[in-house]
Design brief:
Elements lengths: L1 H7 L4 E6 L5 H12 L2 E4 H14 L10 H6 L6 E6 L4 E6 L2 E2 L7 H11 L2 H14 L5 E5 L2 H5 L5 E6 L2 H15 L5 H17 L12 E4 L5 H15 L1
Parallel strand pairs: 1-6, 1-7, 2-6, 7-8
Antiparallel strand pairs: 3-4, 4-5
Length: about 240
């Protein structure tokens, strides 16, 4: 009986990687809620560092001083605080809630450049691994299955056409009240793909044992049901 109980309550690590605007965070939140797991949005962490760099004038659309940012990394404190009303954890930068600020198109344009800095990645990967040391976690990002948790029991790689992803992101920003143009969003998606996939440190690639999901024409329910069947097989 004890063996059966332990088997039924086994916790695993779920690593979700993929291109921007593929719905990684959405499916990760759903899985974490269903399984009562911890959810970590690593993209929010890189966005928060990018916001800090912008605030300190280390980066803009016309320049980037990575050396100054690296020298200042010890002054960056990142944490997640669960918001019961929203149903997910919000990103805090140096004890300030920056969840809204990090989701702007301005941050989106610069985050891939910041995420390509090895020292930034080293700092955040260490924190991410600490968060997931006891398993029972769903984490999404660009290098979760390849670098952060290479031994994760379930690895997913999310993809979709650039047009589909840009359309989703465009609607999301419009619903928030942001004034954006579709062409600007599409260009941003394509540029982030290029930088994420070609950077020297931990480029965005599909882990050999990851299961690929092209959700260009897949509804949320179908996607969730398929992934939950994979989760149940491993639990």
């Amino acid at each position: 009986m004890l063996f059966i109980l332990q088997f039924m309550t086994k916790k695993i690590t779920i690593a979700i990687d993929g291109f921007s605007s593929t719905g990684k965070s959405t499916i990760a939140k759903q899985l974490a809620k269903k399984l009562e797991y911890i959810y970590v949005d690593t993209g929010a962490m890189y966005r928060a560092v990018t916001l800090y760099a912008m605030q300190q004038n280390y980066i803009s659309e016309t320049f980037f001083n990575p050396n100054d940012l690296v020298a200042d990394l010890d002054n960056i404190s990142l944490s997640f605080t669960f918001n019961e009303q929203l149903g997910f954890a919000e990103m805090f930068l140096n004890n300030t809630n920056v969840e809204k600020e990090i989701r702007t198109i301005e941050v989106s344009k610069l985050v891939s450049k910041v995420a390509a800095i090895s020292e930034v990645r080293k700092k955040l990967v260490k924190k991410q691994q600490e968060m997931g040391k006891n398993k029972g976690i769903v984490m999404d990002g660009r290098d979760i299955g390849t670098v952060v948790f290479p031994n994760a029991e379930l690895k997913l790689f999310m993809t979709a056409s650039a047009d589909k992803r840009a359309t989703r992101r465009y609607k999301e920003l419009l619903d928030r009240g942001d004034k954006v143009k579709y062409e600007e969003i599409l260009q941003n998606v394509q540029e982030r793909d290029r930088i994420d996939s070609t950077r020297e440190d931990s480029p965005l690639i599909k882990a050999e044992d990851a299961i690929e999901f092209d959700n260009s024409d897949m509804g949320l329910k179908e996607q969730f049901d398929r992934i939950m069947s994979l989760v149940n097989a491993r639990i």
